Amino acid sequence: MSDAAAPLQGARVLVGIGGGIAAYKAAHIVRGLVASGAEVRVVPTPASLEFVGRATWEALSHHRVLTSVFEDVDEVAHVRHGQEADLLVIVPATADLLARLRMGRADDMLTASALMARCPVVIAPAMHTEMWQHPATVENVAALRDRGITVLEPASGRLTGPDSGPGRLPEPAAILDAARAALTAPRVEDGAVLRDLVGRRVVVTAGGTREAIDPVRFLANRSSGRQGVALAHAAAARGADVTLIAANVDLETPPGARRIDVESAAQLAAAVHEAAAAAPDLLIMAAAVADFTPASRAEAKIKKSGDDGAPALELVRTQDILRTLVSDRTALRDADPGAGTGLIVGFAAETGDASTSPLEHARAKARSKGADLLVLNDVSTGVFGAADNAVRILDAAGEIVAEAAGDKTVVSHTVLDEVVRRLAPVPWDA
C-alpha cells in the first residue's frame, strides 16, 4: 500500500478505460500515476480500443493489457487484478459503463475486475449533457455513490461536435487529486470511502490576497492555494457540500465544489461573511489574507520622477476575518444558544524570531482568536507551492491535538479527522 507521505507511491492502481472519445485524455492520467510512483495496470473496454489502441496503454503502463475474461485464463486475471488493486480509477466512464457498474455486470475484464475490487474506486464520467442528466444516469450515479464509490462531477464546456454543457471529462489534475484523496481518506469495509461529512456544508478559503497599489502593482504573498484546494477536495470526497472561496488560485476546482473567485482581502471578507450567513457546518480559513492594504489606490500607474526617492506607501490594517467570524458566532450564541454551532478552523503561517518560536506565536494566536482549531504552518523552511506540508493542529487553548506531515491531501484528512470529532450529529431530518 502507498506510503502516508506520498499516497500514490507504490500503490497498485487499476485504470479502467471506457469507450468514449475522452479516452485519449486518460493517457495523461496513466502517465501522471506512473510518474507519482504507482504501479499501473490498464484495463480498457473493447469499445475503448476504437479510440486509443492497446499499444498506447502498454507503453505508458509497462504492463500487458487485457480486455477479455478469456485472456490469461490460467492466471484468472479477471479475479487477480481486482483483488490486488489498492485503487481503481475508471476514466472516462460512459453512461453505458455507469449502468453496467451499477448493475454489477461482469461482461468484460473491466467490469469483472470492478466486481472483485475491495479498494477505493474513483469514477470520472464523460458523456453528452443529455445523457448525464437523464434520470437513469442520475439514479445510477446516486446508487454508486451510496456504495461509497467516488463519482466525480463532470466539467462543463465544449463537448463532441458543436454542443456545450456539463459532461466534459474533469481535467487530469483533478482526477489525480481525487485518486490521492481516495487513497488517504478514512475507509470502511470493502474499500468504500468513509463519507462522514455527508449532509454537511463546508466553506474553504484558499490562496493569497492581492492588495492593489495602482493598476499595475500590488502587495501579495507567496500562497499558491494548494493546501486550501486539497482541503476542499478532501471534504468533497468525504461527502460534504463544498464552497471554495479562491483568492488568486491557479488550480483546478475540486469536482463537485462551487467556486467563488476573489482578489483582495476586502473581497475575501465579503465573500466569507456572505457564506457564513448561510450557517455552514464548517468554515476553514486556509487562505493567506493580507494584514495590511494601501490606504489609497492610485488611479494611474505611479511614475518615477527624476531623482526623487521612492514614493511613500501608507498602509492600513485589513479586517481580521477569523477573529470577526468567531466574534459574530459568539454573539449569535449569546442571543440564541442553539444558533451559531458551526465549527471554525483557522490557519497560521508563522516564522520564528529572536525570542519566540513559530509554535509559541501560533499558541498566542489560537488563544486570542478563539477558533475551534488553528493549523500551524511553519513557513520558515518554505512550503508555499510545494506538494507536501507539515502542520501542528492546536485547539482554542493552544494545545496541540494532532500533527501531520506529507502530501497536502494527507494533511487535509488529518485536519478533517479532528473536525469530525467535534461536529455535532446531523439531525435526522437534515
Automatic annotation (TrEMBL):
<comment type="pathway">
    <text>Cofactor biosynthesis; coenzyme A biosynthesis; CoA from (R)-pantothenate: step 2/5.</text>
</comment>
<keyword id="KW-0479">Metal-binding</keyword>
<dbReference type="GO" id="GO:0015941">
    <property type="term" value="P:pantothenate catabolic process"/>
</dbReference>
<comment type="similarity">
    <text>In the C-terminal section; belongs to the PPC synthetase family.</text>
</comment>
<protein>
    <recommendedName>
        <fullName>Coenzyme A biosynthesis bifunctional protein CoaBC</fullName>
        <ecNumber>4.1.1.36</ecNumber>
        <ecNumber>6.3.2.5</ecNumber>
    </recommendedName>
</protein>
<dbReference type="InterPro" id="IPR005252">
    <property type="entry name" value="CoaBC"/>
</dbReference>
<feature type="binding site">
    <location>
        <position position="347"/>
    </location>
    <ligand>
        <name>CTP</name>
    </ligand>
</feature>
<feature type="binding site">
    <location>
        <position position="365"/>
    </location>
    <ligand>
        <name>CTP</name>
    </ligand>
</feature>
<dbReference type="GO" id="GO:0010181">
    <property type="term" value="F:FMN binding"/>
</dbReference>
<feature type="binding site">
    <location>
        <position position="291"/>
    </location>
    <ligand>
        <name>CTP</name>
    </ligand>
</feature>
<feature type="region of interest" description="Phosphopantothenate--cysteine ligase">
    <location>
        <begin position="202"/>
        <end position="430"/>
    </location>
</feature>
<comment type="function">
    <text>Catalyzes two sequential steps in the biosynthesis of coenzyme A. In the first step cysteine is conjugated to 4'-phosphopantothenate to form 4-phosphopantothenoylcysteine. In the second step the latter compound is decarboxylated to form 4'-phosphopantotheine.</text>
</comment>
<feature type="region of interest" description="Phosphopantothenoylcysteine decarboxylase">
    <location>
        <begin position="1"/>
        <end position="201"/>
    </location>
</feature>
<keyword id="KW-0288">FMN</keyword>
<comment type="similarity">
    <text>In the N-terminal section; belongs to the HFCD (homo-oligomeric flavin containing Cys decarboxylase) superfamily.</text>
</comment>
<dbReference type="InterPro" id="IPR036551">
    <property type="entry name" value="Flavin_trans-like"/>
</dbReference>
<dbReference type="GO" id="GO:0004632">
    <property type="term" value="F:phosphopantothenate--cysteine ligase activity"/>
</dbReference>
<keyword id="KW-0460">Magnesium</keyword>
<dbReference type="InterPro" id="IPR003382">
    <property type="entry name" value="Flavoprotein"/>
</dbReference>
<dbReference type="Pfam" id="PF02441">
    <property type="entry name" value="Flavoprotein"/>
</dbReference>
<dbReference type="GO" id="GO:0015937">
    <property type="term" value="P:coenzyme A biosynthetic process"/>
</dbReference>
<feature type="domain" description="Flavoprotein">
    <location>
        <begin position="12"/>
        <end position="179"/>
    </location>
</feature>
<keyword id="KW-0210">Decarboxylase</keyword>
<keyword id="KW-0436">Ligase</keyword>
<feature type="binding site">
    <location>
        <position position="369"/>
    </location>
    <ligand>
        <name>CTP</name>
    </ligand>
</feature>
<dbReference type="Pfam" id="PF04127">
    <property type="entry name" value="DFP"/>
</dbReference>
<comment type="function">
    <text>Catalyzes two steps in the biosynthesis of coenzyme A. In the first step cysteine is conjugated to 4'-phosphopantothenate to form 4-phosphopantothenoylcysteine, in the latter compound is decarboxylated to form 4'-phosphopantotheine.</text>
</comment>
<feature type="domain" description="DNA/pantothenate metabolism flavoprotein C-terminal">
    <location>
        <begin position="197"/>
        <end position="420"/>
    </location>
</feature>
<keyword id="KW-0456">Lyase</keyword>
<dbReference type="InterPro" id="IPR007085">
    <property type="entry name" value="DNA/pantothenate-metab_flavo_C"/>
</dbReference>
<dbReference type="InterPro" id="IPR035929">
    <property type="entry name" value="CoaB-like_sf"/>
</dbReference>
<keyword id="KW-0285">Flavoprotein</keyword>
<dbReference type="GO" id="GO:0046872">
    <property type="term" value="F:metal ion binding"/>
</dbReference>
<keyword id="KW-0511">Multifunctional enzyme</keyword>
<dbReference type="GO" id="GO:0004633">
    <property type="term" value="F:phosphopantothenoylcysteine decarboxylase activity"/>
</dbReference>
<comment type="pathway">
    <text>Cofactor biosynthesis; coenzyme A biosynthesis; CoA from (R)-pantothenate: step 3/5.</text>
</comment>
<dbReference type="GO" id="GO:0071513">
    <property type="term" value="C:phosphopantothenoylcysteine decarboxylase complex"/>
</dbReference>
<feature type="binding site">
    <location>
        <position position="301"/>
    </location>
    <ligand>
        <name>CTP</name>
    </ligand>
</feature>
